[in-house]
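Whether sequence alone determines local backbone shape is best considered at the level of individual chains. In the encoding step, the backbone of a single protein was reduced to a row of integers, each denoting a local shape. For completeness, the protein is quoted in full, as a sequence line and a line of structure tokens.
***
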Amino acid sequence: MIEETAETNQTLLCSDCFTDEGLRIDAFKLGIEEHLKCPNCHSQEGRKLTKELIEALAWRFFVGGTTVRCDYGAAPVIQCNEHHFGRSDISPSIWLKDDIRLLEEAAQLGFFHYGPRLWMIGEVEPLKDLQDESKRLQIIKRVMKEYPVKTLVMGEKFYRLRICPQRPADPAEYDSPPIALAGKGRLDSPGFPIMYGSQDIDVCIHECRASTDDDIYVATLEPKRNLRLLDLTHLLEEDVTEFESLDMAIHMLFLARSHSYEISRAIALAAKEAGFDGIIYPSFFSLIRTGGHPFETTYGMSLRRYHPEREKYAEAYTIQNFALFGRPLENDLVSIKCINRLILTQVGYIGHFGPVEY
């Protein structure tokens, strides 16, 4: 065990070993700061990489870096594992070829073009039925039945952000948009306004697409009574594959762009008819906020469904948003605790690189 630990911690490469600039930067971010000579290139300044870190670098650059989003779902173009060692079949840019050989030899892995399981790109039966107007109601009835009720308790805080309101100090500015303007968001429909909010202020900024040029205000709100919400962030327990999973269908629905709004609006209307005060739903910006990777798998199996601590895994990569039906301030369901101006003083981006040819 001591020998195995020593071998695991052994430096094999460093960030200065690589020619590709993106790969070098990613290696520097992942590597260990240690001013010893690299056994490969003899640099003392490069961040040092063990076998485990090299595997993480390969996944981040070639798997994460080639992931393509579809209408629903996403999948990488390239995968890598130890079973393909010595049998890589990708066609990288010329400046990456030596770097790939270094990664292959150091981590004993190979790179290959990935044929994803079709559920990863939206071939999920309940999701397909939601897209079919003749079958949509049947699945929405399941959603009403299988997802739990969660209570937003009286006095529990959440936030609503507005950009350039006409009267920033007027509480009415933070209610749902007027009925005449409803029908542009993910869950509101014509004649059916919705107040959107979150307990995560950073997500509020993302959702409103706020920039440093905007005049931004944040209202802190709280319910005046317990509110009954349909919790669509709940991880369902199901004895089915990803292809038949209602949980996967709803997960993909809320990570999809505006083409999915017709479906989510139908769910919101059904929840209103069922007597709910609103919905808790996953923010579209959950992954960019948490640093998660869309639809992670191990050998084609969804980590959301098969992770040993799947509930903690799902919770770690989900930011909850609130959608309260109607006009909650006007209808005296919520109250404003305070209103503040929000000044953005620093904006930063965290990302990684990927190949341009493969």
Remarks:
- The longest strand covers residues 334-342.
- Residues 35 and 45 are 6 Å apart (CA to CA).
- The radius of gyration is 24 Å.
- Confidence is low (pLDDT under 50) at residues 1-6.
